[in-house]
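Supplementary Methods. Inverse-folding protocol.

Structures were first reduced to a discrete structure-token string of length 352. This string, shown here, constituted the complete conditioning input.
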């Protein structure tokens, strides 16, 4: 089997994660790492990993066929372009870059050089996401008309560069890009019609420390994405409403359930007390018309991401995270910022 030589550029938190995994995968071999911080190169050497002396040295290494760029967001673009021009394939960490215009430049270089160029959207393989997709795609709740996707923290924006606009900081670019990519790829051929968004600055003036967006798709699905960093009570990771049932996925460990209605027409109810009044409309269903079912848990298998990269490089397979998907996601991010700035609904024009 041909082993593919990989170098990791940016040996911080996520670069370390890639390096550990690449070192253990049988189809890849870790050639070394490069970081502008000398302390990170010392850390690499202590772990038995070759530290390169410069980025140019990485590019000149003939054993390296693939670069993983895991630096702060603002330098993904120049590093990816330089790598492709030097004849290297590249995986950029997310977000691939900070604007559609920048991405178009990067994609043009990929097309010109014929190099693989993609982004690490690993959360397409998260178990909670693939379970949610399974519920929808297997029609477990009937037609789904509402999805809410949330992640919630309580410590503000972490680290240093993530707090700075110049480095592409903020939560839209950080967690947002994962949840938005999930929303778009599960609706890959379902046109997105409109976007409304609000960003927060509770703990940081410079960058958004959270955001909320409502996406409306052509088939009537509304899909809400919320990322917050100042929550001390956490809402479920997923909340899904279908015509015949509802589902909740509480967390990444797949706690949760589906509640299905099996006798929709049996809607008689006695009024219940509600605050200062009474209600029939909001009275809970009686047990003989609904029942709970466990979640149809699915396993994502993140290794498939690198498996696809290997197949693209060795047998011409189609890359899973495509240029079109990268562009659609960045275009959505731009619409989110525009909506937040203008406090208006943005019509989303699909490219194809
Ligand atoms: P980090 O600050 O821990 O590490 C970044 C490293 O890059 C630092 O060691 C820094 O010295 C180095 N660096 C900066 N500029 C450089 C340059 N020009 N050349 C070489 N090295 C340079 O940050 P992190 O949390 O590891 O994030 C890195 C990237 O990974 C970001 O794009 C982030 O969005 C992404 N990320 C992805 C996931 C995921 O699940 N896919 C998770 C965390 C972070």
């Amino acid at each position: 089997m041909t082993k593919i030589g990989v170098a990791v550029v940016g040996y911080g938190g996520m670069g370390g994660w890639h390096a550990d995994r690449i070192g253990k995968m049988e189809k890849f071999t870790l050639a070394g790492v490069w970081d502008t911080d000398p302390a990170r190169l010392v850390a690499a050497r202590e772990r038995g990993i070759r530290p390169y002396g410069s980025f140019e040295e990485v590019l000149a290494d003939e054993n390296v066929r693939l670069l993983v760029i895991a630096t702060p967001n603002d330098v993904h673009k120049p590093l990816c372009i330089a790598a492709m021009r030097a004849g290297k394939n590249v995986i950029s960490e997310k977000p691939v870059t900070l604007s559609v215009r920048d991405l178009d430049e990067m994609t043009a270089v990929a097309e010109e050089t014929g190099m693989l160029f993609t982004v690490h959207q690993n959360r397409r393989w998260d178990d909670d996401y693939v379970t949610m997709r399974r519920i929808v795609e297997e029609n477990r709740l009937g037609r789904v008309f509402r999805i809410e996707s949330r992640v919630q923290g309580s410590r503000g924006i972490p680290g240093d560069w993530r707090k700075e606009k110049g480095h592409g900081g903020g939560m839209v670019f950080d967690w947002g890009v994962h949840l938005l990519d999930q929303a778009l790829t599960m609706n890959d051929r379902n046109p997105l019609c409109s976007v409304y968004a609000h960003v927060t600055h509770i703990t940081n003036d410079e960058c958004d420390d959270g955001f909320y967006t409502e996406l409306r798709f052509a088939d009537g699905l509304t899909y809400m994405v919320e990322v917050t960093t100042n929550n001390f009570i956490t809402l479920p990771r997923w909340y899904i409403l279908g015509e015949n049932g509802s589902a909740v996925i509480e967390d990444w460990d797949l706690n949760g359930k589906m509640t299905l209605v099996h006798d929709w027409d049996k809607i008689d109810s006695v009024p219940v007390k509600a605050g200062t009044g009474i209600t029939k409309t909001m009275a809970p269903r009686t047990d003989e018309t609904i029942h709970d079912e466990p979640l149809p848990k699915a396993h994502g298998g993140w290794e498939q991401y690198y498996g696809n990269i290997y197949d693209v490089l060795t047998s011409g397979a189609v890359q899973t995270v495509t240029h079109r998907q990268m562009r659609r996601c960045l275009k959505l991010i731009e619409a989110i910022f525009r909506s937040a700035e203008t406090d208006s609904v943005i019509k989303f024009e699909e490219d194809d």
